[in-house]
Model the fold of this input.
Amino acid sequence: MGKAKEVSGAQALVDSLAKAGTEVLFGYPGGAVLDIFNCLTDAPFQFVLGRHEQGSVHMADGYARASGKPGVCLVTSGPGATNTITGLATANMDGVPIICITGQVPLSQIGTDAFQEADMVGISRAVSKHNFLVHSADELPETVAEAFYIATHGKPGPVVIDIPKNVQKAMTSATYPERVSLRAYHPECSASQGEVQKLAKLINDADRPLIYAGGGVIASGAAKDVAALARKAEIPVATTLMGLGSFDEHDPLALGLAGMHGSWAANLSFHEADFILALGVRFSDRVTGKLSEYARHAKIAHVDVDASSIGKNVPTFLGIQADVKDLLRVVDSRVHAAKHGAWLAKIAEWKRKRPVAYKPMHEKVIMPQSVIEAIDRATEGEALLVTDVGQHQMWAAQFFRHNQPRHFLSSGGMGTMGYGIPAAIGAALANTGDPVVAVCGDGGAQMTFEELVVAVEHKLPVTFVVVNNSCLGMVRQWQELFYGKNYSGSILSVKGRAANERLDQDLKYDYLPDFVKLAEAHGAVARRVIDPAKLDSVISEAIRSRKTNLVEVIVEPRANVYPMQPGGQPIGSMIFE
Ligand SMILES: Cc1ncc(C[n+]2csc(CCOP(=O)(O)OP(=O)(O)O)c2C)c(N)n1
Ligand SMILES: [Mg+2]
Done:
């Protein structure tokens, strides 16, 4: 074998990213990564220039969630690197594979308070799955291979590669390794025969079984296997926010979202089940409510690739560290076909008695929930729905009939406002074929609005729907319910502030900024809807146009997300209106 040609560290990085399968690189330049940018012009992948590093990481995140492949981004040192932290934390909480490359000052200057020096290894430690500081150009190809391996094996997550400038300039002939073998990380796992047998027995013995499906089902590609098990053994399925789309909500066995804004039927099912099969979940407090009251009558079997999440929040009867898909495939032959008529009848009764529903508050004012229903109708449920964070996010979870994995992208664990616009751009660049619709609040949209121009520039057929209630709705809701209607700091515009005083009286309110003008200034096609009768046509025209569109929908500001199970409270405390 001849000696490989010498290239710069920067070129070795770009070559390694290509070898690792990178198709799109998101990022933003600066002094500490100029050597790398210099090599991008000839790179075999696309580069997408964001407008803020947080936006670039959320784009990589949206790309990863939509495609199932790691998202890759590149930023400079110092402020470029620190601007990625929210994006990394968001991906880390939700188990999204990202490779984040940051520039660093030359090795010899580390620790000298050099210009744009930030200790990225230290700062990113708590918000990434792993990080590397690369000491020599010879290490680069191997480090990239290891980073991709770590990001995608076991519970996925973001990995940071911090590369000092002198390392980018140094020459190397190191080549991309064929295989990765890590001394200290062996996430491969499989269930033992005994565990499989025990699990099958629990499933077969249960009278009131429940599947609780989370993001791990989607990450492992196990949606079809969950559906097969649910149908064979007649087990209803409740999902977490991250698990939406892992089970088709048109199926009568679907309970939809569980937890704080989950359905009454889903939450009561947890309370009355005698067996819960938890698949790829982490028992978030948003789902469990008061732990001592949670699922009191159920034996819990918990399957997760991440051993550290088993038994962390909830005691489990049987914990199995395994990939959900692999496990369901081996357990299948031991599970008997079953009927649970009485249990399903009970659940159907709960669904009938307390459906997730809303009532119009004023005939001339659009209810925010109906915006989501309009998107569902316009796309016949085929949209790749991306949300920001707040009330509109919960309505998107509740009123869209989720039916496919990787079609609901939302910041669950971190609840990061500003996620929606850039994540939708990343999802559109993953080009899955389905229309991408981003649902944002007027608050969150203002956090990363600058990224809209990226969608315009790349001619992405994304429809950005701004659900404008002139307030930080979710905060306003909590203030209404738990803080004596003291709407402190939750009304968004000066004009809106006057509306605040009238919030409970009439509906004459104003809104700022003008999202239509703002979108047009960014080059997008934009329309505003106020009249409920026009909602459907405007939404469907926007989606059908295949252009970058923004639709600002002026909605009822007093609407609340119900049902609601207040944090830390037991099931009986759910409120419905
Ligand atoms: C970065 C960030 N800051 C603050 C919050 C707290 N927070 C959660 S929801 C919310 C209100 C969101 O308002 P808006 O975007 O208008 O959506 P709405 O609730 O009105 O639908 C706030 C401030 C957050 N989740 N993320
Ligand atoms: Mg709002």
